[in-house]
Amino acid sequence: YSCSAPHIVLLPEVPFNADNFIRRVEEVLKNNAHCFVVVSEGVQDEAGNYLGADTSSTDAFGHAVLGGAGEYLRSLVEDRFSGVKARASKLGIAQRAASHNSSKTDVEEAKLCGREAVKAAVAGESGKMVILNRTGKDQYAVETLLAPLADIANGVKAFPEKWIGEDKMSIHPDFARYAQPLIQGELQLPYEQGLPRYAQLSAIRVQRKLEPYQTA
Fold it and tell me: Cα–Cα–Cα angle for 136, 139, 143, nearest 5°?
């Protein structure tokens, strides 16, 4: 196995088998000083149970609140391997809000979606959201479309099977080629005293035109 991380990628589309996972970790550690694992919070075991899920809590759509897969694997590894230390690092709000690490492509497409959303609202569209449709083949390009919120909220889009490695614990190189354009381009952000300088927006209010919203 290559020394290049991640060595194991666990996806929700592949049922988790603890024994197979441990065997793979053991194989990786034979040739590497460490084993780096990426796991989705949506991974389920062969019985359909989410790894480390808090089954007592649900979201607005009734889905189990996920967030313990990493800790589950950490505990499993330390239980099965004597003397092996394992750590779990959960990506959260700090990672998602780190806009200073956004790619130029990401920022430009965010602005594009914002502009198109305003245009759609002014045109009278409602109950829809802006989506990006990939149009380029040899060169990366996208177009914006409107999609009904009812078709998106509570929807699930699976990771394409063709991008899952034959061993079911890795990603096919075709996915890397698909995702590569999304992280292209670097932004030169302004800094002040060692910290990114963000825009401070003024609270400019417009005259109310609609009646106060009331729940049904």
Answer: 35
